[in-house]
């Protein structure tokens, strides 16, 4: 299997604005190495996050990767076959002026700045946790749940965005649903799509309140497809990222304040359900309202993110979603061609 691994200094810190570093064919499985958000330079509790990774040189991305055969306007399906830690440790931090409970230039207060702190977490695959020891010798453990904070295609209109920003092209979504077994749907804005991926997380609670997850380098296997003309008609409204797992469909919204991200995600899910199930908009609104779940991705980035999901078993008529591309991409031997 082909592995894409940037050389020294080849990481991108933006989405858009760069030529492709590699090209892969549609339906071809490949592997990427992604560095953690501090470029692997923060490995001790005495390290200085803002010295080793000064903004905007955070969240390095592997890419862009040209998806051969993708055309601008296509809906690209990116399936994560496996997301595995590349090291046995990860790092989390708190930093002055960053995090949900810190004052910022947009939400100032007169409280003292939070001190800068670093925690090193060790993976424990046997127990399915990541662990760290804190003051007083206390041990902390949380579930090991690897996922990618950032998956993106190039933005529209030639824009170049920092890797810290989430938006319609994907980007820094920080949503645990972007994990192994998930297919992420993104509208390509340029030929080739120009896929970028990074910001691996070993664990993260909803909201990423302290400003970082347990950040870790990742080895990820993935495969990308594109919706056929027929399936794309079912996805005419894909203006924001969508996701699909074996159990649920997910709409993702970005915005500030938080309620705007919620509104984007809920509206998209209502339109999606109405379209694939043949329901009126208001009937779909009722189904989503009574049956959905919602998760907050982050409350620290330039835009907040929310994922609103609905179990597939609640969809009347058992509709074929996105032309069945998720099922084809998750197959052990993906078939080539269009969904």
Summarize it:
By secondary structure, the chain is mainly β. It has five helices and 22 strands.
Please tell me about this protein's structure:
This protein has 339 residues and is mainly β. The chain contains five helices and 22 strands. It has helices spanning 49-52, 229-233, 258-277, 281-291, 325-330; strands spanning 2-4, 14-15, 22-25, 30-34, 61-68, 75-85, 89-94, 117-124, 129-133, 139-143, 147-152, 161-162, 166-167, 170-172, 183-187, 195-203, 214-215, 218-226, 242-244, 248-255, 293-298, 304-311. The strands form four sheets. A nine-stranded mixed β-sheet has the order 1-4-18-6-15-19-20-22-21. Strand 8 (117-124) and strand 9 form a beta hairpin. The chain is globular.
Strand order of the largest sheet: 1-4-18-6-15-19-20-22-21
- Approximately how much helix is present in the residues? 10-25%
| SSE string | EEEEHEEEEEEEEEEEEEEHEEHHEEH
**Strand share of the residues?**
35-45%
How many distinct helices?
5
Compute the CA-based radius of gyration: 20 Å
Query: Pairing-aware structural class of the strands and helices?
Result: mainly beta
